[in-house]
Amino acid sequence: MTTKRIIACLDVKGANVVKGVNFLNLQFKGDPVSLASLYEEEGADEIVFLDITATIEARRALYSVIKDTASVLSIPLTVGGGIRTLDDVSMALSSGADKVSINTAAVENSQIVKKSAEEFGSQAVVVAIDAKKINGNWIVFTKSGTYNTGLDAIKWAKKVEDLGAGEILLTSIDRDGTRLGYDLELIKKIVDSVNIPVIASGGAGKMEHFYDVFFLAKADAALAAGIFHDGIIKIKDLKSYLSQKGIEVRI
């Protein structure tokens, strides 16, 4: 079994970390630099920094905040939000990010994925897929979950792999912030459809949910936000639990 990763997510709005439910009703949770530092200390394998209003506000990501966050980390940092051009990708990487997460721009112009992979390497390109179940199918949403693209999430996952994405960050909008558990059916379908790592996101509420997403859905990594921000689960304790259950993690 490959080593599974635990990823802490920072949803950033106006330089503050926030968290909502189903992408709505955002509440203040702290500042990204302090939280990133704390999660690395607790044993997080990676940090994902998402500037959640950059795309909707048609602006670039908060590069000064990204720089400050990257400066306190030695673990990989993925940055997303407002990444629309090769210049944006370059700016994020030169601000200290190890990878960029592209969502809306990838749907609107899939060549951004291909060109980014060619320019910076597939290992630096993550495509974020926010999916919602509609009439029995998972559909891709963009612009922070506000726009229904009509794209089938499984077909889109295969396409972004073909374009050169090195990883998929898969979020279930239906489960986001609910703490009811990851959408195992969706995750397993995507995992089975591609040969690149899949990060599961949306719905973590207890340690068993992480075990299920690794053991049953075969995700390569599990991302969570609210349960870490609120201190419900400590990453060290989670890794100890997973290790005892036979899931290989970095302790």
How are the secondary structure elements laid out?
Blueprint: E1 5-13, E2 16-21, E3 24-30, H1 32-42, E4 46-51, H2 63-71, E5 77-80, H3 86-94, E6 99-102, H4 104-108, H5 111-120, E7 125-134, E8 137-142, E9 147-152, H6 153-163, E10 167-172, H7 184-193, E11 198-201, H8 207-215, E12 221-224, H9 226-229, H10 235-244
Parallel strand pairs: 1-4, 1-12, 4-5, 5-6, 6-7, 7-10, 10-11, 11-12
Antiparallel strand pairs: 1-2, 2-3, 7-8, 8-9
Helix pairs in contact: 1-2
Q: Could you walk me through the main structural features you see in this protein, from its secondary elements to its overall organization?
A:
- The protein is of the alpha/beta class and 251 residues long.
- The longest helix has 11 residues, at 32-42.
- The protein has helices at residues 32-42, 63-71, 86-94, 104-108, 111-120, 153-163, 184-193, 207-215, 226-229, 235-244, and strands at residues 5-13, 16-21, 24-30, 46-51, 77-80, 99-102, 125-134, 137-142, 147-152, 167-172, 198-201, 221-224.
- 35% of the residues lie in helices and 29% in strands.
- Helix 1 (32-42) packs parallel to helix 2 (63-71).
- The radius of gyration is 16 Å and the shape is globular.
- An 8-stranded parallel β-barrel has the order 1-4-5-6-7-10-11-12, surrounded by 6 helices.
- The chain has a single domain (3-243), classed as TIM Barrel, CATH 3.20.20.70.
- The protein starts with a strand and ends in a 7-residue tail after the last helix.
- The protein has 10 helices and 12 strands.
